[in-house]
Amino acid sequence: MSRIDVLMPQMGESIAEGTVSKWLKKVGDSVQRDEPLFEISTDKVDAEIPAPAAGVLAEVKVGEGQTVPVQTLVAVIETDKSAATTASPSAAAQRTTAAPPVPPPAPPKPAPPPAVVAPAPPPAAAQRAPAASGGASAPPPPSPAPVVRDGGGDGGETAEDRLRTRSTPLVRKIAAEHQVDIAAVPGTGISGRVTKQDILTFIERAQAAPPTAAPPPVARPASSVPLSPSVEPWPGDRVEPFSKIRKITADHMIMSRRTSAHVTSFFEVDYTKIAGLRRAHKAAYAERGANPTFLAFIAKACAEMLRKHPVVNAAVSGDNIIYRHDINIGIAVALDWGLIVPVVKHADELSLMGLALAIKDLGERARTKKLSPDEIQRGTFTITNPGVFGSFAGAPIINQPQVAVMGVGAIEKRPRAIELPDGSDAVVIRTMGMLSLSYDHRVVDGADADRFLADVKTLLQDFPEGAV
Questions:
Q1: Using one digit for the tens of pLDDT, what is the confidence trace for 134-173?
Q2: Of 276, 394, 401, 444, which has the maximum CB count within 10 A?
Q3: How far apart are CA 270 and CA 209, in angstroms?
Q4: Is 262 a residue of the active site?
């Protein structure tokens, strides 16, 4: 007889906690090794977690909707079925009413509060110690007192002090841009860490405060000051809370609009030649399990032109522009429960066939929650394709910290006026579609964006048959 502990996995270096979103087995059920056991949500990815061993699910320690740190015991698998069936009756109830597996951490030692606003930390310091971001549903511990930093390292800090000031790179980036000392922000995450919601709310309250010579008062925890106004439901309305992925998306979109100066350009593209190439090569692609979709052609054209236009493949870090060497194209995937952007790494090194296979694979695994955290990180440019739902064109929001995102409109046959070789005009039926590019005007000028779009359009309209 042996008991196998099932722990909350660490789904990436910067992930410090996870939420059990759904149990796929109940207490007393038999499980096979590597069979999906439960689903989790983190600030990077939703995923199914497989059973580490075959046996019977004897105990569930963490209920659905509960957020706990990584390596927390969430369940027990008993390899002896008879022992599992004698588990306490309360084990089943723990599935929905489990108590937090670890007690709230003790608050760090009090210290005199520092000024709320301080110079941004140097980039090297800002990149150390990644940790969890917002969305935790566990009850927040009491907000610890701010910690005074002397700039001389961690010499006088306790372990609690270091946990208190840990945050995600995104939180540190927001804090640096607004010159906010993270230690002055009340944190509602695990161990009092500062979440995206905390830093955004703190900044909003500081900006709304009347001018005064004294430092503004410390903001209340973000959970008590929602960014969205409170709206009263009417009789017959259905109210449901944001899912974790929806909350993360909402926070990220709001932050992006605040961060980047959004401008959008639109180009119309004639896909008639590509439509013919797709018909000619569709059978050959199908033999290898691929599909030469319009999206694959567009991704290929973007990968080629991002090397020619590096500013569109860049990122902003403070007052610096980072020109990315890698060309990693994110492809937005619409899910029933939200939106996710898996990334095709080194897209410029792939053939059209390779891109078609990669896009298909990532899309299928996104819908079945099989993506790893690494597969949705390190994107340098994003393509979103609302055209598959019939949208003519759109102005998408930039996927931070990138500086540009392309929107693909519906591709369909439309009448178009053309000039014939003899100089006369005619109206013909062509396969047409719109491409839009939202870009960060802090870095990308309109001329840069339009040159990039013009080159992508030219390649798509005269796509070389040898590249198919």
A1: 333 344 444 443 333 333 334 444 444 544 555 666 777 7
A2: 444
A3: 52
A4: no
